[in-house]
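Changelog-adjacent note: as of this version, every example in the card shows the full chain rather than a window. The one below runs 207 residues end to end.
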Amino acid sequence: MLKQAMAQNGLIAILRGLRPEESVAIGEVLYDAGFRIIEVPLNSPQPYDSIRLLRNTLPADCLIGAGTVLSAEHVQQVKAAGGQLIVMPHSDPAVLKAAKEAGLYLAPGVVTPTEAFAALVAGADVLKLFPAESLTPAVVKALLAVLPKGTALVPVGGISPDNMHAFLDAGVAGFGLGSGLFKPGMTVQQVADNAKAYVQAWQSLKG
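Full-length structure tokens:
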């Protein structure tokens, strides 16, 4: 399902700071814009409630996950809330193991080749390249040149509709979108407008 979602739209919505009472409305405009992977970081208010609401509301072809997952206990709580994807800023082996044992999709954070290869051996489905602001497309291209063919590398951090093309040319599979898409205090309409701009840029570059 993760591969299908990424193939349909490689943009991942990172909703840090999302509140449960706004989660359904935000989730619906993202889905309508074309997003098929939505992540609620666990340092958001009542994140498990938002994950549960999104999973119970949005169509089955939309993957709901959690970000900033830092412990094996968090993995179990995400699964209990209906989450399907574990996203991490790092590659803690205990969290990797817990996610795979729970049958969840896994996107650990990596920067170096050593981290990337270790994460793949541990069962990572997607590699989250974080923080992307510190890396150039040339570095990304070099990294992909040595990783197994077909490795899904997803830059996160500082991605805008204007800088996506260089990373796509380097071979990335998609992008994680944070404050450029959503941040606390934005209206549903603002998020809808941001989502539309990102999806249009993605479609024009991939078309």
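Structural remarks: Residues 188-206 form the longest helix (19 residues).
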